[in-house]
Design brief:
- This protein is of the alpha/beta class.
- The chain is about 35% helix and about 15% strand.
- It contains 6 helices and 8 strands.
- The chain has a 6-stranded parallel beta sheet with strand order 7-6-5-3-4-8, sandwiched between helices. Strands 1-2 form a two-stranded antiparallel ribbon.
- Helix 5 links the parallel strand 5 (about 115-120) and strand 6.
- Helix 1 (about 15-25) runs antiparallel to helix 2, helix 2 (about 45-60) crosses helix 3 (about 80-90) and helix 4 crosses helix 5.
- The radius of gyration is 18 Å and the shape is globular.
- The mean pLDDT is about 95.
Length: about 190
């Protein structure tokens, strides 16, 4: 008897395929989000796709590789969503840090995970400073904002818009095992 193969899916189910689909078939569909400061952003799937590709380019230029942990600290806005897709679509692991935890908990979690890059909401600048001090693996801090909203901090940091600006969005997405982690979050108090 001949082997029978399933023919419904011939590609790995990696997260990049969701955004590729959205940009291809629903590119003009509006996406509305609200940043932590209350700013409402309107975009669409085509623009999100391009911005996420720029994030991927910026991460690769920063030396982020598949399996590396990229932390986010903040609220769910348009830049955060682009960071989510840009990180996971190159095989890196997006580590969402909960800004509602105690600072020592956040620092312990980020250090334990080995986070290399932090994408933070400007409202979380004080927490980001703590992480820069207490997380030895943290190399780069990017604030999820435009240059004019970049908080004044005593450590090197860049505004998201400036960080992605030089990148045209040519990073290859997918091509890795669909069973690889794309996200990481800690479910209970690690200090208890």
């Amino acid at each position: 008897m001949a082997e029978l193969f399933g023919l419904m899916q011939d590609a790995a189910l990696t997260v990049d395929r969701f955004l590729d689909h959205g940009a291809t078939w629903h590119g003009d569909r509006e996406i509305v989000s609200r940043d932590g400061d209350g700013t409402v952003t309107r975009t669409d799937y085509r623009t999100l796709h391009h911005t996420a590709r720029q994030v991927s380019d910026a991460l690769l230029a920063a030396g982020i590789a598949p399996g590396d942990r990229v932390a986010t600290l903040g609220w769910n806005g348009a830049r955060h969503m682009a960071a989510w897709y840009g990180t996971t679509n190159i095989g890196a692991v997006l580590h969402t840090l909960n800004p509602r935890l105690f600072p020592e908990q956040i620092a312990w979690i980020a250090a334990h995970a080995g986070d290399r890059l932090l994408l933070a909401d400007p409202a979380c600048a004080a927490l980001a400073a703590r992480l820069v001090r207490d997380v030895p693996t943290l190399e780069t801090v990017v604030f999820l904002c435009a240059r004019d909203a970049l908080p004044v901090v005593d450590f090197p940091a860049v505004a998201f818009d400036d960080w992605i600006a030089p990148h045209v969005g040519i990073a290859a997405w997918g091509g890795f095992d669909e069973r690889l982690a794309c996200g990481l979050c800690y479910g209970q108090d690690p200090l208890m």
